[in-house]
């Protein structure tokens, strides 16, 4: 089975790379809230961040399935793929909807690591998940767009050269449907910071390098428009399935890390002259967490296979993300409980990974919004919002 051999080889190669970045590396970065530049460079040099870029642009030309395996193995090795995962799925917007000139100019540089495309500006402070109501406006003046507005929870903006920015180019009261009139601009952050763009970091409970962005009459060339003006919402939705699948894979990796660490500790920890893992009260939660992670993994692969075949996979991608996020969170709690007080000690890394995997109950889409999607679009129940 060539596919099985490919995944085995790919997993082994990623694990070998991750061995150079052990727990202590991530622990130190977490304490300093620092970005893993050395790790991201190693991934880039190995070609992993260019997995989804076609070979004609210098990438590997792999599918979402292979890309998901890469991210899974990073998290399973104790790392945090959230530091760089966006380059895989944000690039898809440029690949599918950018002009030939944009793709020829930028994708080879993204593939080589000369340019980083790590940030996508969508969420705003006053609109949250109600994306069509965003307030950031881009008004065309000659050969430029002038952008005013604010974004929040925009991760890796300080560590990216380019930013895909969702803006409203036609006021909402001038469109027939609220999803119309939104556009995507490709912003050169290197030329924009200090010239109409201010980036302000937000310190959070995990080391996620997230920020808020302030646009004060930032000028962006019309040539930076991705695709057609007014079609930005369609382009955004088009890329969400890949994002869901890749995040699900990371959660599977987290879940397996938690189960492995909990199992190892339960075997080694001796209390009352016996390993605590001999007690059903300890082993049953670990076993259940393992079962749920493995079940989520099946849905991840189902969604990825459909995506790579070009078939509809919205329901599978959303369910994969929900199942994997729930499974990793359950496994995280089990790992803390199994370790007892040591689960809260930094040196065991459980508390760090606990904080990191908690994010995926909320981002990049809340589990409740996935349930609302399934209720409406899969089960045919009335729209709830």
């Amino acid at each position: 089975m060539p596919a099985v051999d490919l995944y085995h080889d790919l997993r082994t190669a990623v694990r070998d790379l991750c061995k150079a970045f052990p727990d202590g590396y991530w622990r130190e970065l977490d304490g300093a809230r620092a970005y893993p530049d050395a790790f991201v460079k190693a991934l880039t040099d190995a070609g992993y961040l260019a997995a989804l870029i076609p070979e004609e642009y210098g990438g590997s030309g792999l599918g979402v399935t292979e890309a998901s395996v890469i991210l899974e193995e990073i998290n399973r090795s104790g790392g945090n793929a959230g530091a760089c995962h966006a380059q895989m799925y944000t690039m898809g917007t440029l690949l599918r909807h950018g002009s030939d000139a944009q793709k020829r100019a930028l994708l080879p540089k993204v593939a080589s690591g000369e340019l980083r495309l790590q940030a996508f500006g969508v969420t705003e402070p006053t609109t949250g998940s109600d994306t069509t109501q965003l307030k950031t406006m881009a008004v065309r003046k000659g050969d430029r767009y002038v952008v005013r507005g604010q974004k929040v929870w925009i991760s890796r903006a300080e560590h990216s050269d380019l930013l895909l920015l969702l803006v409203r180019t036609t006021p909402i009261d001038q469109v027939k449907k609220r999803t119309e009139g939104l556009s995507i601009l490709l912003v050169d952050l290197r030329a924009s910071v200090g010239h109409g763009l201010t980036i302000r970091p937000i310190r959070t409970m995990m080391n996620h390098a997230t920020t808020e962005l302030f646009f004060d009459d930032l000028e962006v060339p019309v040539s930076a428009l991705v695709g057609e003006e007014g079609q930005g919402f369609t382009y955004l939705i088009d890329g969400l399935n890949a994002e869901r699948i890749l995040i699900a894979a990371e959660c599977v990796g987290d879940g397996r890390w938690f189960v492995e660490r909990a199992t190892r500790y339960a075997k080694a920890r001796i209390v009352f002259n016996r390993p605590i893992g001999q007690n059903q009260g300890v082993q049953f939660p670990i076993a259940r967490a393992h079962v749920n992670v493995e079940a989520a993994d099946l849905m991840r692969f189902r969604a990825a296979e459909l995506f790579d075949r070009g078939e509809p996979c919205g329901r599978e991608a959303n369910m994969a993300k929900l199942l994997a996020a729930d499974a990793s969170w359950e496994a995280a709690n089990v790992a803390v409980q199994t370790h007892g007080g040591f689960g809260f000690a930094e040196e065991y890394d459980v508390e760090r990974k606990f904080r990191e995997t908690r994010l995926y109950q909320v981002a990049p889409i809340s589990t409740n919004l996935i349930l609302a999607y399934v209720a409406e679009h899969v089960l045919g129940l009335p729209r709830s919002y």
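The domain at 117-233 is CATH 2.40.110.10 (Butyryl-CoA Dehydrogenase, subunit A; domain 2). The chain has a mean pLDDT of 96.
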